[in-house]
Q: What sequence folds into this?
């Protein structure tokens, strides 16, 4: 039985000033980050990555290889942190769980008819329970964007609450697919709905739609998290996903995170990057910091 939740009046979600939010987001790209601060930021960003494989051609071998990479990012650089999690389809959760063993790296699974979300609720719930029963520590669900865009906010709220119930002890990441929501006002409203319905994380994108994560969209979501925390005292985590492939951009995101939400969110319990290609670029930058020269991309595994 799903616990009854009081549904707020989402018509009261604030209007977002497009020019203002884009101007504020651009300021974070102008910070100068050097030396020890840069090294700390790169290590932190690496530890916040969810390495992901979400393809129809995924095999157990590919998932095992990704799990190996997660635990051995670059053996030529001792002392590196691990990534935060491996994200796979529900059918690969058991394989990933076994391959990661006692590494401490989480197993995340997409669910709820990812990436479209176009399935009946009972199928979405079964999809979620299957992932959790096979060992998923985290579940990444997609909202029903069609219902949201039709103004069926209570439907979206109830569906998120039902999936949260099906997650049990697993943490729930709610993917808004912001590229399909189009406006910042809709991104803010969807963020509010997800948090009040029980999301542990709010996440920008599936990575299958362009545009995916952007700094202005992420700033809108971070400000929603801040306002929710002020109202309820409950912390919500954030995950920008898709389109973040360069370490310099990741550092800009961390500056934005710190200046919007503060030190309490500056760890992988409360912030993640959904950007597998980012890991190799960070590794190249770390080796540059360590040795003074760039290594070829050929020195790092693709997956």
A:
């Amino acid at each position: 039985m799903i616990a009854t939740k009081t549904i707020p009046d989402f018509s009261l979600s604030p209007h977002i000033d497009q020019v203002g939010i884009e101007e504020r987001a651009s300021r974070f790209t102008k910070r100068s980050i050097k030396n020890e601060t840069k090294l700390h930021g790169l290590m932190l960003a690496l530890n916040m990555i969810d390495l992901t494989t979400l393809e129809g051609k995924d095999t157990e071998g590919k998932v095992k290889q990704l799990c190996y990479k997660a635990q051995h990012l670059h053996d030529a650089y001792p002392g590196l942190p691990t990534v935060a999690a491996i994200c796979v389809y529900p059918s690969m959760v058991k394989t990933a769980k076994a391959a990661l063993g006692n590494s401490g790296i989480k197993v995340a699974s997409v669910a709820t008819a990812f990436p479209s979300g176009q399935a009946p609720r009972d199928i979405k719930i079964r999809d979620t329970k299957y992932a959790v029963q096979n060992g998923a520590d985290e579940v990444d669900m997609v909202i029903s964007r069609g219902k949201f865009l039709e103004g069926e906010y209570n439907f979206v709220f109830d569906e998120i609450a039902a999936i949260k119930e099906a997650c049990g002890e697993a943490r729930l990441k709610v993917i808004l697919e912001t590229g399909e929501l189009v406006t910042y006002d809709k991104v803010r409203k969807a963020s509010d709905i997800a948090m009040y319905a029980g999301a542990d994380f709010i996440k920008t994108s599936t990575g299958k739609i362009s545009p995916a994560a952007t700094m202005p969209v992420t700033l809108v979501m971070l400000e929603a998290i801040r306002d929710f925390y002020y109202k309820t005292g409950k912390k919500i985590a954030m995950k920008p996903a898709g389109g973040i492939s360069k370490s310099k951009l990741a550092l800009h995101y961390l500056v934005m995170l710190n200046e919007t939400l503060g030190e309490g969110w500056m760890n992988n319990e409360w912030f993640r990057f959904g950007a597998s290609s980012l890991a190799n670029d960070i590794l190249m930058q770390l080796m540059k910091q360590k040795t003074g020269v760039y290594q070829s991309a050929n020195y790092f595994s693709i997956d």
User: Anything to note?
Assistant: The mean pLDDT is 92. The first helix runs from residue 18 to 27.
